[in-house]
Specification:
Shape: elongated
Oligomer: single chain
Helix content: 25-40%
């Protein structure tokens, strides 16, 4: 396990996890260039070690550069820090199989990662049908997810006479606003109230842009072609009206490939022009989770220097598009500017399947069971099987219902807990995810934190003690 060079690190654990920890460190130490040592404290489950107890039992050998405690060991680390000073103390990951990631071997973030140069316009669809408070709430949500500008999508059959009020309210909240309309009354009222971008102009309305005094988005006169685009650009340039070009992307089956070609041709004609792409035409109109499609389209935009994208988030499979694009633009910017693959950089976009699913293997799990001295069930999921083990049993099955029947658990709350964990384990096997008992499955940026059973029981005990103390139970 020890590496000849590098810092000397002491990993603290309990008796039960010792074997598994040593297995992980045997592989990790040479790759991370560390000298790994293990301190096994006199307790079965490491997660049950409070810091004060650790401080009483831990002996740190001379020459150790760093001490790493189990991630599930909660509470103030001050007693341990004081005991081992000046050696630094920190918590590791909750699951010891995540130690490689903690040492930068699994999804490392590159230096300077996170920069971007693509603007996100988030469209509020059917804006005229929404009350002001609903518009503001949606705009605030889009901004929190990464949007740089709120686009008000107007409906045909206008004009929307309340557009000025809506724009003013959004501006009051600090939003930049664009208006998506061909109705001259709507556009004039929106611009007067503070909208600073108009979608869109072509040969039918470009002359009105001279009166607006704001930037406009130029589109072809006829969808599926570039007809009229050059004439509109010439007109706007002559009258010094700022503009960005959008050749319009088409859905799959309606000229998608050819529409990408029009973006390439537009860039060839106008090598330095600002450009935009409305990517909702793909994400909203294709039966697929939007994240992968958003990443691919943003990659295309980054390479072609398309500096802004318009997205919608209406249909359920695309409802997180703004956040997806915010992460994707950072990934694409890093890949293109550094000429490196967009891989192992943005785990937040890997949602359905995990990048890597570590496994102990049946023999190591059997060895782990031999070390268990208590009746508590440990659940594992790997290689198509769910394993349940305690001091008496080593059970496995691909069917969680069959496995639960063999476990013989009757107590309701315990049965509910195990059923919940078995359901997570089956989900992980189905999708190819890393299952860790008492922890949430990793859904990328959609992951919701989960309170472990150990933490929940501790919280309940603390609440009970506070209640008893408040009633005089602790002071009597």
């Amino acid at each position: 396990m020890p590496h000849r060079d590098g810092p000397r690190i002491l990993f603290v654990t309990g008796r039960l996890a010792e074997f598994a920890l040593r297995q992980v460190l045997d592989d990790l130490a040479p790759k991370a260039k560390i000298r790994a040592e293990v301190a096994v404290l006199p307790i079965t489950v490491a997660a049950l070690m409070p810091p004060k107890w650790i401080a009483r039992h831990l002996q740190v050998p001379e020459g150790v550069d760093r001490v790493i405690l189990p991630g599930m060991c909660k509470g103030d680390l001050a007693p341990v820090v004081e005991k081992v000073a000046p050696v630094p103390v920190e918590r590791g990951p909750d699951d010891l199989r995540d130690l490689p990631r903690a040492f930068g071997l699994d999804s490392p973030k590159a230096d300077g990662y996170g920069a971007f140069d693509i603007e996100i316009l988030a469209e509020i669809n059917h804006a005229p049908t929404l009350p002001i408070d609903a518009l503001l709430a949606q705009a605030d949500r889009f901004r929190a997810e990464g949007a740089d500008r709120i686009d008000l999508g107007c409906d045909p059959g206008g004009p929307w006479l309340g557009v000025g009020e809506a724009v003013a309210a959004l501006r009051e909240q600090g939003h930049r606003v664009s208006v998506d309309s061909f109705d001259p009354v709507e556009v004039e009222r929106a611009v007067a109230a503070g909208a600073d971008l108009v979608l869109s102009v072509n040969g039918s309305n470009r002359d009105r842009a001279r009166d607006w005094g704001v930037e406009v988005v130029v589109i072809p006169d006829q969808v599926g072609t570039l007809d009229g685009l050059d004439e509109s650009v010439e007109f706007l340039t002559k009258h010094e009206i700022p503009h960005r070009l959008d050749p319009i992307i088409e859905p799959i089956g309606f000229g998608f490939a050819a529409s990408l070609g029009r973006y390439l041709e537009t860039r060839r004609r106008y090598p330095d022009a600002a450009m935009m792409m409305g990517i909702g035409n793909l994400t909203e109109l294709t039966d697929v989770d939007s994240s992968g499609m958003n990443v691919a389209l943003i990659g295309f935009c980054q390479e072609l220097r398309i500096g802004s994208v318009l997205t919608t988030a209406v249909i359920n499979w695309a409802r997180s598009s703004v956040r997806e694009i915010d992460l994707a633009r950072r990934l694409a910017y890093h890949a293109v500017t550094n000429k490196t693959l967009p891989k192992h950089l943005e785990p937040g976009l890997v949602m359905l399947r995990d990048p890597k699913v570590p496994a102990f293997g049946p023999e190591n799990l059997r060895e782990l069971r031999r070390r268990i001295k208590d009746p508590n069930w440990r659940i594992f999921a790997e290689d198509g099987m769910i394993y349940a083990l305690n001091h008496q049993h080593f059970l496995s099955d691909s069917d969680p219902f069959a496995l639960f029947d063999r476990m013989g658990v009757d107590e309701p709350s315990h049965a509910f807990y195990l059923g919940y964990e078995l359901a997570k384990a089956k989900t992980a096997l189905t999708l190819g995810k890393h299952y860790r008992q008492d922890q949430a499955l990793d859904w990328g940026f959609l992951t919701e934190p989960e309170v472990s059973a150990v933490e929940r029981r501790k919280w309940e005990r603390d609440q009970h003690l506070r209640h008893e103390g408040g009633a005089g139970g602790l002071g009597s």
